[in-house]
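Please fill in the sequence for the structure shown.

STRUCTURE ENCODING:
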């Protein structure tokens, strides 16, 4: 489990439980550190972007993840 999910600009991100679960799966699969930075997705209904280092993944509020 990620110790912290935060906005790339700083501060804790408020996400749905499904988003937190999806981000933790991404963190483990991509070998990311315990703190995961997310970027708000423009023109969306709460989706966030995670930079894995080699690609950007969008995580919707229901946990659906896509590139």
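FILLED IN BY: designer on duty
SEQUENCE:
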């Amino acid at each position: 489990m990620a110790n912290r999910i935060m906005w790339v600009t700083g501060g804790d991100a408020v996400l749905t439980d499904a988003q937190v679960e999806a981000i933790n799966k991404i963190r483990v699969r991509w070998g990311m550190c315990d703190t995961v930075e997310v970027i708000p997705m423009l023109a969306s209904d709460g989706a966030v972007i995670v930079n894995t280092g080699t690609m950007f993944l969008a995580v919707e509020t229901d946990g659906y993840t896509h590139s």
